[in-house]
Design brief:
With 310 residues, the chain is an alpha/beta fold. The chain has helices at 2-12, 21-25, 68-72, 81-91, 106-109, 112-119, 127-135, 241-252, 281-288; strands at 38-42, 48-51, 56-59, 98-100, 122-125, 143-145, 151-154, 157-163, 199-205, 208-213, 230-234, 256-260, 296-297, 305-309.
């Protein structure tokens, strides 16, 4: 109970609006798009929809927002189907071919099987993610279990899962560790969604490549030989930004870094974006402002299409 109370105190208060100045200043600006451009929608947290004009897929889609009290006190949570349908329409993802899960915490996987169910997409993730899918009633033929360095092809996208490490996001520890070993049927508490192992998701396409780093833990040397044009960098629970630069950004040779998973996901998505108090966006922007760095840092608006590669 003490840990829950501390969690509530740490995360209820959001950062002041001035902390978003850099976010707004660095928004990715529209650029000319061709019919075969690769587009991205940010859905808040680590959620993305990627589409190249032919094929689309989701990563960690999470739109069923609940307040910190309900989450922290263990209330049963249920995927909000109407909101999921709205976001499928917003992103144009009704014909998505896959839904990928970086790990099985509720803010990454609770909604994912329902995006797959509504679109007919293949649901891809760990064994724990598989049990979340089974609890949602997804048929076995629509579930693909992966392990380290497994690669799948979806249209012109080649996608590799790289075993990584979850950040010690809760008082120096990984929140809700362990695996899910039986079908998880909602409604269920957030703590029922055990981490189940974390994966970085590396995506290659003829137009460019990117790395989705869904949690900010540090595992040295896992990106040797991985070259990415863009890194989507989760900020929640990081020790510091410089360690992410050293172990994630620099090894990939990325030209652009896009921060994700810094927003207050206890607020509805239709509210103005605000960061969680523990994210320390000031430290992030101070570290990334070094003009000598060989990459740029850009941000994305929530729920609006941006060109990733063209």
């Amino acid at each position: 109970m003490k840990q829950l109370i501390a969690l509530i105190l740490a995360m209820t208060i959001t950062a002041c609006s001035h902390s978003l100045e850099k976010y707004k200043e660095n928004l990715l600006q529209p650029c000319p798009a061709s019919k075969d451009s690769v587009f991205v929608y940010w859905m808040g947290t680590a959620g993305l929809y990627i589409f190249d004009g032919e094929t689309g897929f989701y990563i960690d889609p999470f739109v069923s927002r609940y307040g910190i009290l309900k989450v922290g006190l263990g209330f049963s949570l249920e995927p909000q189907i109407n909101t999921i349908l709205e976001w499928i329409e917003t992103t144009g993802g009704s014909h998505a071919k896959a839904v990928l899960a970086s790990h099985s915490h509720y803010d990454h996987v609770m909604d994912a099987p329902y995006f797959a169910r509504q679109t007919g997409a293949l649901m891809v993730g760990s064994n724990s993610t598989g049990y979340v899918c089974r609890g949602a009633g997804l048929p076995e033929q629509q579930i693909k279990i992966i392990s380290d360095r497994d690669t799948i092809a979806i249209g012109n996208f080649e996608i590799t899962f790289i075993k990584s490490l979850h950040s010690p996001a809760l008082f120096g520890r990984i929140p809700w560790p362990g695996e899910i070993k039986v079908p998880l049927v909602p409604p269920a508490s957030a703590s029922s969604y055990r981490e189940g192992g974390s994966y970085a998701i590396y995506v290659r396409h003829p137009k460019g490549s990117f790395l989705h780093y869904g949690s900010a833990g540090i595992m040295p040397d896992i990106f040797k030989g991985v070259s990415a044009d863009v890194v989507f960098l989760s900020l929640g629970g990081r020790k510091d930004t410089e360690s992410l630069v050293k172990h994630v950004i620099e090894p990939t040779g990325a030209k652009r870094v896009i921060p994700i998973h810094f927003d207050n996901f206890f607020n509805p998505l239709n509210k103005e974006l605000s960061p969680l108090i523990g994210i320390d966006m000031a430290e992030f922007w101070e570290t990334m402002s070094d003009a000598s760095r060989p990459y740029e840092t850009k941000t994305l608006p929530i729920g609006q299409r941006a060109v990733l590669f063209h």
